[in-house]
Design goal:
Elements lengths: L1 H21 L12 E9 L4 E3 L2 E5 L2 E6 L9 E12 L1 E6 L11 H7 L2 H17 L2 E6 L8 H10 L7 E4 L4 E2 L19 E2 L2 H15 L4 E4 L1 E3 L6 E3 L3 H13 L4 E5 L2 H10 L3 E4 L5 H10 L2 E3 L2 H10 L11 H16 L19 H8 L5 H15 L16 E5 L12 E6 L2 E4 L2
Parallel strand pairs: 1-5, 6-7, 7-8, 9-10, 11-14, 14-15, 15-16
Antiparallel strand pairs: 1-2, 1-3, 3-4, 5-17, 12-13, 17-18, 18-19
Length: about 425
């Protein structure tokens, strides 16, 4: 009887292996190797190099410079008038959200089925990649539980196109501080996982890591009620334990925070980045610089929300929230704190990630070169991604070619002509 059972098991395993061998991913492609790219110039993540070429073999860059030797069978890809740069890195996205002027956040969390949200997210992932962003931190599913785990797996298996993802799954909030909030008589699903106290926060961090989180996101402050200002939510002890537990598992922690005290507690706990930082002061930004904590300012999200609420940009005075962002950014720049690049895309349309770059230059006075470094080598360094963000031998062949010179005109980043991810061309002229 046992022998018969084993025979059935072996036959089943053999059939599965045959079927899996035949079931090639729909989007699988053989990376052309080697390929020599000849643009007008190469931005290597730090500096522009006119006349440089880049040689790609397999999924890696093998050489960059002038007069490169070409192995037998090398395919030459001419890119006249284009600048080649490392694949852009989006530092703050939500693939499972779509713009709030289409559907309010509450309705997305409460009324949209997870299957619908995942279907949207597959489109969002493709748009992100085709816009030149080959890596993205996705900082919370906003009520869609662990759906980002499956989206990441689908991208990695070649089932759907998209960027390389670093995912935060559910995110952590103090009980009662987040939303949606409706009648006090009705308990509704929340946009993040509630956790409290030493035992509760440690368990929640471990749960999220066990389900596949690459990053733990914590809301260090938030509004307790409608119309109230944001206030710190987690204690210093709780934040310390969140960071210690995550770091012990090799995961960084990022903190949503907009109050000086919430930011201070998160920085002292050892988070990797502060997201938003709207109310940041010179003092707290200096503390961040001292502790090596970066600011991801997400200026595009606040700009979009203000316009959804009726602000006629260019005609009306700056809304209070936008004015506060200008003041906090002035303090951040004065402090010298590291800036990560990320727009909180999902609040505004996916594929328009470059909106953050445009606003940083146009409204906040940063130079195109500084912003371009943030979106490539800067983000790679801050996020600990040593295999990308620069054009250098041995790194991932995640490359983007744009029309014009983005080191002088950031709007060139909207003119994406070629996208290569891991040596595979996913968009070409």
């Amino acid at each position: 009887m046992l022998s018969l059972f084993r025979n059935h098991v072996y036959r089943w395993l053999f059939l599965c292996s045959v079927l899996l061998g035949r079931a090639q991913p729909l989007l699988a492609q053989t990376a052309p190797t080697p390929t020599l790219l000849r643009p007008a110039a190469v931005f290597d993540g730090e500096t522009l190099h006119p006349g440089w070429q880049v040689l790609v073999e397999g999924d890696r860059i093998t050489a960059a410079g002038t007069n490169l030797p070409t192995p037998t069978g090398t395919r030459i890809l001419e890119l006249p008038g284009l600048t080649l740069l490392p694949g852009l890195i989006e530092g703050h996205s939500h693939l499972l959200l779509h713009p709030y002027n289409e559907t309010p956040w509450n309705d997305q969390v409460l009324l949209e089925p997870v299957a619908l949200r995942v279907a949207r997210a597959t489109v969002h992932a493709q748009r992100t990649l085709l816009a030149g962003f080959t890596t993205a931190r996705d900082l919370g599913t906003e009520g869609a539980d662990y759906a980002d785990v499956g989206i990441k797996q689908a991208i990695e298996q070649g089932i759907i196109p998209g960027p390389r993802l670093l995912i935060a799954t559910r995110a952590l909030v103090a009980t009662g501080s987040y939303g949606p909030k409706l009648s006090t008589d009705v308990t509704v699903p929340q946009g993040a996982q509630e956790a409290d106290g030493p035992e509760g926060v440690v368990r929640a961090v471990r749960e999220q890591i066990g389900h596949g989180a690459d990053i733990i996101k914590v809301y260090a402050d938030y509004r307790w009620g409608k119309g109230e200002p944001a206030r710190p939510t987690f204690s210093q002890e709780e934040l310390n334990l969140i960071v210690q537990t995550a770091n012990a598992a090799g995961r960084p922690v990022v903190a949503h925070s907009s109050t000086p005290e919430g930011m201070r507690r998160a920085v002292l706990a050892g988070v990797q980045t502060i997201e938003h930082g709207d109310g940041g002061t010179l003092e707290v930004f200096r503390l961040m610089k001292q502790r090596g904590v970066a600011l991801c300012p997400t200026v595009a999200a606040g700009d979009a929300i203000a316009q959804y609420q009726g602000w006629r940009k260019g005609q009306d005075a700056l809304p209070e929230r936008v004015q506060q962002k200008h003041e906090s950014m002035q303090a951040a720049l004065k402090s010298g704190v590291m800036l990560a690049f990320g727009g909180d895309v999902g609040v505004f349309p996916h594929g328009e990630n470059v909106r953050e770059a445009k606003l940083l230059v146009q409204d906040y006075g940063l130079t195109p070169l500084v912003v371009l470094r943030q979106a490539t080598s800067g983000n790679a360094r801050i996020f600990g991604l040593s295999d990308r963000g620069r054009i250098q031998s041995g790194l991932l062949a995640d490359l983007v070619a744009v029309a014009g010179d983005p080191t002088h005109d950031v709007s060139a980043l909207r003119q994406v002509r070629l996208v290569m991810k891991g040596g595979v061309i996913v968009k070409q002229p």
